[in-house]
Amino acid sequence: MAKIKHIAIATQHEEETARFYIEAFGLTEIGKIDIPIVSGYFLSDGTINLAILHFKNDQVAGAERGKEWSGIHHIGFEVESLEEIAQKLAASGASPRDDINHALGLSMGGSQHGNAEFRYSGPDGVMFDVSQTGWAGTSGSAPRRSGKA
To answer: Is residue 141, in this structure, part of any structural domain at all?
Structure first.
């Protein structure tokens, strides 16, 4: 069974937003990212990875939202098998986000930055990642370096 392990919030003020979740809810900073396509923080409560992200171009953010958009951007599911979930998602009508996958360097073989392996769009335009390896700071995941959104 897939488990929600990741939520990403897009923001224009990643430091202030991360500080809010750390101070208000006691989340722990487990990583930081600052690369040409995205900057931000990875926080955790020990179960779920919360990414606070400032996307630096429209392709990475997704053209329908763009880099200036703020709010819950996507969620992530840890799955047992990428191949099995790809088949289920195709049968359910979910669409791979090839535009974003390409912009982020994601493939079913893994990410160049760590964390998610592939992004899709589901009903109501909700975007989500799938990962067989999980996210840093989540229960059951192996420690890893800071990574991708």
So the answer is: no
**Who wins on pLDDT, 3 or 110?**
3
pLDDT at 110 over 60: no
Q: Which domain holds residue 76?
A: 3-131
In-domain check, residue 140 = no
Domains in the chain, number: 1
Using DSSP bridges, classify how beta strands 3-10 and 38-44 pair: parallel, antiparallel or unpaired.
unpaired
Query: pLDDT grade, residue 143 (50/70/90)?
Result: very low
The pLDDT value given to residue 47: 93
Here the CATH number for the domain that contains residue 33 is: 3.10.180.10
Domain assignment present for 138: no
Tokens of 77: 């599911």
Here the contacts of 86-90 (C-beta below 8 Å, separation 24 or greater) are: 86/118, 89/120, 89/122, 89/130
Instruction: Enumerate the β-bridge partners of residue 41.
Output: 32, 52
pTM, two decimal places: 0.78
In the chain, which residue ranges form alpha helices assigned H by DSSP?
A: 14-25, 58-61, 82-92, 98-104
**Does residue 12 lie in a domain region?**
yes
Mean pLDDT over each residue of the chain, to the nearest integer: 87
The DSSP secondary-structure symbol of 67 reads T
